[in-house]
Amino acid sequence: MTTVMDLPMQWFVLMTMLVTGALLGLFFDSYAVLLTELRFLRRWQSIGDLLYWILALFLVFFLLLVVSNGIVRIVSYWLLLVGFLLYRFTIHTQWINFQRKVVRTTVITVVKASLPFRWLVVSLMRVKRNHAVDQHIDGDDQ
Fold first, then answer.
1. Which residues contact 93 (CB under 8 A, 6 or more apart)?
2. What residue segments make up the domains of the chain, in order of their start?
3. pLDDT bracket for residue 1 (50, 70, 90)
4. What is the pTM of this model?
């Protein structure tokens, strides 16, 4: 059984798949920048990759369900690829640079904001250590 899509639906599917392909590339680059800039996340990379592709799969099939009543055609996948390539050849470099600046600025801000708390924790630990040393010395005198 073949299902016929009218022309407005075909245009809507075309635009949706192009934009979705570009957004998938954008999200993947954002994820890659996070892994590059925040090195402690690298140990979770395989789980993150799996989650990304599962979410991408659900997003694509959900959009196909909404836009084309669940009609899946090979051209939809080609349009995703074209959307990704359009993103890759147009704003990829600018997006990566922007994301790096955002991540680095956020990390610097968090580190600077945490410095007073670090000072407080270190000071309290010194007081506790000095108190323990004083108790130990007082215990030796008795």
1. none
2. 1-90, 105-142
3. low
4. 0.74
